[in-house]
Design a protein that fits this description.
heterodimer; A: 324 residues; B: alpha/beta; 9-stranded mixed sheet; binds flavin-adenine dinucleotide; binds adenosine monophosphate
Chain lengths: 324, 263
């Protein structure tokens, strides 16, 4: 039987949304081999979070509660998990694919001789072997992959790939495990948390957002877009490259590193639809995509689309609005 | 301060993509290639650090013959030398095998800082830089959005991106691996002088054996991940698509009368 463990993320007494998705995925994967998954939590003073996890149908919840783990550090987390797995590593370790786990997962894999499946979208059994699907080329294509060689497989799960609603509730015992972290190096001295580049614009309150991507081609080409936003009484948002290039300020960024919005209308102009952008806007009621590439992933989640040059489409939209 | 920057050459994917005949990757025949976005940012960061604090930048890239062009570009931007891991045994590796090869080249070169991008646009493992750090036994940080050299140039104040517009700030001691995120700076253009002088700069091509590695430790043979096939995502319900002259007017009408999201 395959042993499957989910390592969960939390912050300030709250379980990360994607931790629930990871529990659901671990339950599904374990069911394929007729077993039960378990979960692991690292931290300090985390009994409330542990209780949340324990309310799931699992074989067990292991908690490493240690002052060194109060703040996340890659060194502390790798030492704790490697220590925990020293007496026998699971066959498969699942993680939410977050900015935190992606930072330390490869180091843990190195420490325990594991293989890495980054950003898994799904899994299926092929005989006794697991075949994973993961995005390549910024989500434009998918690859089916398998882990080879011996040792545990460490897979991180893309945001939203597994539904948290699929999690089976239950009642599981919590086991506190002590790991010797006396010699663990945290490798970093934490100085604090900051807000990146202010947040003067609250895009979450907007009913309509006109969002631009790299396809707009430059700050000097934003005029008609701003005009369209005015005509629709909309806020202007942007994908990351637009911000990184300095065409719009950072507080207009939508996506995993920026704001998460769900307006009733979201117009994506010259945005390809990478997952880091999609997680920030896929909850919008109506999504419109304008892109010159018919194969752009954004069309997969759009309700309406125009395949064409946004520099022609936007003026035509303005004209159509004025005429109606 | 000696800095090694890892740059990967990746395909530009705004063109129509096709699956290669073996079904395991895309057909690269008609594609153009460029330096991965965050890697170019890493290079710019390395050049700025060297300019400010003294030292030199060496670039390293693993990939086939075509990668030479990107290395030349990096040399034209200001790197002093380049290392090209082009031996065919290096090809087709996952993050573990690629990280192992790059780390071996870096170990042989010796340096105080390794700069990498955060994620490659093609494989998107987000893991290779971290594995280089693991191989070297050095501290690392992923998604670096700020680097401030402190007194004595032995420690760094690093700003790292977190989700939802937050960032964490911490201190790292050198030697270290910093995996930078796009947006940290705006990479420079190569000057004409830079382009001319790049022609004379050295590009070395060590083999696995030169780096103390067996062929089986690198490339596809040394990998833990195997690609079985690649495909376009199955299309879901998908969008109602409008094309041609009347498209914008049709869209506006739909938004008013069907979706009722504008008035
Ligand atoms: C850790 C991490 C965090 C990230 N966080 C975010 C985030 O918060 N938000 C975010 O958006 N991204 C984020 N990204 C980046 C993300 O992966 C993508 O690179 C980014 O979203 C792509 O932006 P884009 O669609 O504007 O650009 P591209 O992918 O370059 O797409 C441009 C699109 O414009 C189209 N186009 C070009 N010209 C025209 C024209 N004239 N008319 C119409 N269409 C045209 C092209 O066909 C293409 O589809 C993050 C990445 C990482 C690794
Ligand atoms: N073949 C390569 N040659 C040089 N650097 C690489 C290579 N592959 C990955 N890297 C570096 O590792 C980073 C992360 O890549 P990846 O793990 O593939 O997402 C990239 O941004 C590069 O800086």
């Amino acid at each position: 039987m395959t042993s499957i463990v989910a390592v969960l993320q939390h912050r300030e007494g709250k379980l990360h949304r994607m931790s629930l998705e990871a529990i659901a995925a671990a339950q599904q994967l374990a069911a394929l081999s007729g077993g039960k998954a378990s979960a692991i939590l690292l931290g300090s003073g985390i009994s409330e979070v542990a209780a949340l996890v324990a309310a799931s149908d699992l074989a067990g919840v292991r908690v490493v509660d240690h002052p060194l783990l109060a703040d996340y550090t890659p060194g502390g987390y790798v030492a704790a998990l490697a220590g925990l797995f020293a007496s026998g590593a699971p066959d498969i370790v699942l993680f939410p694919h977050t900015y935190q786990t992606v930072e330390y997962l490869p180091r843990l894999a190195f420490a325990i001789g594991g293989g890495i499946v980054p950003e898994a979208l799904s899994f299926e059994m092929d005989g006794s072997e697991i075949v994973w699907k993961r995005p390549i080329l910024e989500g434009k294509m998918h690859a089916r992959v398998r882990a080879k060689g011996s040792g545990p497989i460490l897979a991180s799960l893309q945001s939203g790939a597994f539904s948290a609603e699929g999690r089976k509730p239950g009642q599981t015992a919590i086991e506190n495990v002590s790991v010797d972290l006396a010699t663990a190096a945290t490798w970093r001295e934490i100085l604090g948390v900051e807000q990146m580049g202010g947040d003067t614009v609250d895009l979450t309150k907007a009913d309509i957002i006109v969002a631009v991507g790299r396809g707009v081609g430059g700050a000097d080409k934003l005029g008609p877009i701003e005009e369209l936003a005015r005509a629709l009484k909309a806020e202007v948002g942007a994908s990351r490259p637009v911000i990184d290039s300095g065409w719009l300020p950072r507080d207009r960024q939508i996506g995993s590193s920026g704001q998460t919005v769900s307006p009733k209308l979201y117009l994506a102009l010259g945005i390809s639809g990478a997952i880091q952008h999609l997680v920030g806007m896929k909850g919008s009621t109506c999504i419109v995509a304008v892109n010159k590439d018919a194969g752009a992933p954004i069309f997969k989640i759009a309700n309406y689309g125009i395949v064409g040059d946004l520099h022609e489409v936007v003026p035509a939209m303005l004209a159509a609005l004025a005429a109606s | 301060m000696k800095i090694v920057v890892c740059i990967k050459q990746v395909p530009e994917t705004d063109k129509r993509l096709r699956v290669a005949t073996d079904g395991r990757w895309i057909d690269e025949a008609e594609l153009s290639f460029a330096i991965n976005e965050s890697d170019e940012v890493a290079l710019e960061q390395g050049l700025q650090l060297a300019e400010k604090h003294g030292g030199e930048v060496v670039v390293v890239s693993l990939g086939p013959e075509r990668v030479r062009e990107s290395l030349r570009k990096a040399l034209a931007m200001g790197a002093a030398r380049a290392i090209h891991l082009r031996h065919e045994a290096f090809a087709g590796g996952d993050a573990i095998a690629t990280g192992r090869a790059l780390a071996a080249a870096i170990r042989r070169e010796g340096c105080d800082i390794v700069l990498t991008g955060s994620q490659s646009d093609d494989n998107g493992f987000g893991a290779t830089g971290t594995l280089i750090a693991a191989e070297l036994g050095w501290p690392h940080a992923w998604l670096v959005m700020g680097i401030e050299v402190e007194e004595g140039a032995r420690t760094f104040k690093v700003t790292r991106e977190m989700e939802s517009g937050l960032s964490e700030v911490f201190r790292l001691t050198l030697p270290a691996v910093l995996e930078v995120q796009a947006g940290l700076n705006h990479p420079r253009y190569a000057s004409l002088k830079g382009i001319m002088s790049a022609k004379k700069k050295e590009i070395s091509e060590p083999t696995p054996a030169d780096l103390g590695l067996a062929d089986g430790q690198v490339g596809q043979a040394g990998s833990r991940l195997e690609v079985l096939s690649v495909a376009f995502p199955e299309s879901s319900a998908g969008a109602q698509i409008f094309e041609g002259d009347g498209a914008a007017a049709q869209l506006i009408a739909k938004l008013k009368n069907e979706a009722r999201v504008i008035s």
